[in-house]
Fold this sequence. Notes:
The complex is a heterotrimer of chains A (181), B (383) and C (392). Chain B is built from 17 helices and eleven strands. Chain B is α/β, with parallel strands linked by helices and 383 residues long. Chain B has a nine-stranded mixed beta sheet. Chain B starts with a strand and ends with a strand. Chain C is an alpha/beta fold. Helices cover 35% and strands 18% of the residues of chain C. Chain C has 14 helices and eleven strands. Chains A and B meet through helix 2 of A and helix 1, helix 4, helix 6 and helix 7 of B.
Amino acid sequence: MKPERVPGRYIREEDLRRLPGVIEYTPTARYSYSAGQALSEFLRGLKDGRILGKLCPSCRRVLVPPRVYCEFCFTPTTEWVEVTGAGRVETAVTSYIGAARERLEKPEIIGVIRLDAPGHAENSFDFAGLFHKLCGVTEDDVKSGRVIGMRVKPRWKPVHERMGSILDIECFEPLQPREVV
Amino acid sequence: MRVAVVGVGWYGFKPTVPELSFREMMFEAAVRAYEDAGLDPRRDVDAFISCQEDFWEGIAISDEFAPEPIGGVLRPTMTITGDGLQCVGQAYMMIKSGAFNVVAVEAHAKPSDIMSPQEIYEFSLDPNIRTLKIPNPLFQAGLDAVAYMRRSGASREHLAMVAVKNKVRGLLNPRASHSAKVTLDQVLDSKPVIHPLTRYEIAGFTDVAINVVLASEDVARRLGDKHVWVEGIWWATEVGTGAVEWHEWGRMPSMRLAALGAYKLAGVEDPLRQTDFSEVEDRFSYMELLSLEELGLGGGGAHRMLESGYYNPEGGYPVNPSGGSLSMGVTLEATGLSRLLEVVLQLRGEAGGVQLKDVRRAVVASWRGPPTYTSIVAVVSRD
Amino acid sequence: MKSNIFVKDKVAIVGAGLTLFRRRLLETPRELAWEASREALSSAGLTLKDIDCIVVGSAPDAFDGIHMKGEYLADGSGGFNKPVVRVFVGGGTGVMVPVVAWWHVASGLCKTVLAVGEEKMSHAYPHPQGVFAYIWDPILERPLGPNLIWIFALEMRRYMHVCNASKEDIALVSVKNKRNALDHPAAQAAAKITVDDVLKSEVLVWPVQLLDISPVSDGAAALVLASESVARRVTDTPVWVEGIGFTLDNTHWYNRDLAYPRYLEYAARMAYKMAGIERPWKEIDVAEPYDPFDYKELHHIEGLMLARRCEAPKLLKEGYFDRSGELPTSPGGGLLGVGNPIAAAGVMKVAELFWQLRYEAGARQVKKPVHKAVANAWGDLMQAGTVVVLST
């Protein structure tokens, strides 16, 4: 039976700590990312409580988040278009762990929101959308699938707390019955 | 089947490009390259390769950001962690295999976004070497410079002369942001940063995105007569960065092996006679001389040839007529593509203020920089 | 793309080798690469002197804890005074390694290539998950403090919703692959488990639970590829690389429907076209779809067009993908069973098909006769598809 030999020596974490010559090293890697033309304007919009997209003159789709090019047509995008921020939940999950796999005290619900934006066909494969936290929905809504397709809108942070960041949106929350955005 | 460069495009060549994100720079370079080639990336390009490295980008899987700005979405797109010329080498193989007609190669650098470049260089050292806490992680360049001088008989002045030649020449090149009017005395009187190299002899950083489109012979001929042939390209790694003690100090065997491979593919036996000029590695002053020796362009000693003015733009064999990296800056993984770009523009007669007369064939050579011992060499020509 | 009749040199795999896959190995990354390389070379009856070129694959530098990891791994992978390149398409790297090695040989520029995948995730401390904090868009995504599993859970949830697949349906993949791995000598996570065990395991990001995921691993895997003339000389049973394919979808993963792996279908179509395969669901005998998560195997079976959309869960339940089934998938145990040292895991999948096609897999050998096989890997922000089609 192949493979005939599988070299390698397993060690347990406790044993690793006891080995001579273990080097602990934390790299220093700091960056100041340039947001660029498209995202700078987008972030300024968030500060004003507005979600901005950019129009592709070729396929007529409004791209959110905005980019200076439409990656499908390879065309520079043109006009800025504000979208309402309302949309439908495309998919959602409940996280019980944080970024470093630590258990969270209170689980978080995260989703992808398909935003109402001009130029996209209903249920199209590609759409305008954002990745964000969801509030006002329960773990059970996620499990049962009730959350998928739910109409939501952004809940904004108070004006004085906004910094021009994706976190200026606190989360997306369900629209009230008959609420129009 | 021959392989040609059919289009080039770039954006930046400035110490900082604050107005655009790296993705937007990539887009601007790509648009220009496809326009130069007369190709539509969404229809005419069979594959896309980006040369990049995670810690230069500040993103752990930076490959994610490669496809959109270069037209590679839902198309064969990949990344190689290497100098841009290594990507050109992959494109060369892909076209030679017969399975691809047109391949676009991209590399970019936004060192102005990196707040801790020295520390990132340190992170590229073997963990055992890191524990030595050597103050400057580029120390290997100093060791090689000293060993090279000792072996070849080149003096401090020879190294400084490289810096003067390239820094001053760059004043004629709009892409050479680090060019300067310097004198030999200014270089020699400056304090060494890494002994024996002074600040004038260590290239600074530059932001840029470069895109190069390669195509098979039939496509190249159909597109017109701007194409430049890649007659041969090869690369080699001498040793891994975990085994620097095996490196042959004062030499660059990877450059020698890469050159032998490229010359063999191009049918070049005597490069000094059979090629007209070269753009070679010069991120440290000594590297220009050492590269020339390893490339077989050193005659009876590269430093003596330099002293005689043979490598000057108006000399017998111009070297780095663009001003080289010392003038244009280190563009991280786009460094090799900067050299190739300058050669393509020269051969097409589009090099403006740095244009040489009657050049037909050139050598392009790049090294991945410390602490690596990987080099890439190409022979490029026009009809 | 042109059909492979124009390709200059036919390319074969003539050797394969693996190290042990474990949560933590004593060997350094270079040593792991060397061990796997040595096994691959000796299985082909070759030495490093016979190798022209090296292709290395490894995922984020942050795992092994060294910037420019390819340069570090070079000599461990046999890259001593030889041409070396490192490929990197995130988790898709493992299968991209033989793809890139393919054109090294097909171009006629290298007669033999050593293709190595290595990953040492145990270096990242306290947990390799921390490394994944840096894969995101630094402006739009990283501020949300995402965990990598979030996005895969989002994809799984969408797949479950659109295909009406249950957690139980999906858990069967984990049960099958961990069982298959019981016969794999390198396996880290082989186990006899039930659907119930999966459903009772720690909930990480619902719907993803601990046993839905492949483990964190150290390990390396290597292949030797050769041109037809060399292959015929060194072995009676070369395995031909008949097709290669690769695709990247857009970076804006939250701007597309995650229910279907479009990136993989595009890559697979490229590889099948090259291999002259028109009906993969009939022509492929055995497959190694990439399975870092259990739902991903089903997703990828559909993307590889081995089953219709949303049909994979039903076929799985019927035993269609078992070792004794009509189209065995991950007969070696896949990533869920053998382990997931990222780039090495993809190479391991291709190695498994190499052994299956040569009838050398012993207890893991599938019951049906095999002639054509396909493997894929996947990576980045759910956007990279890499595919190879092999045949005897």
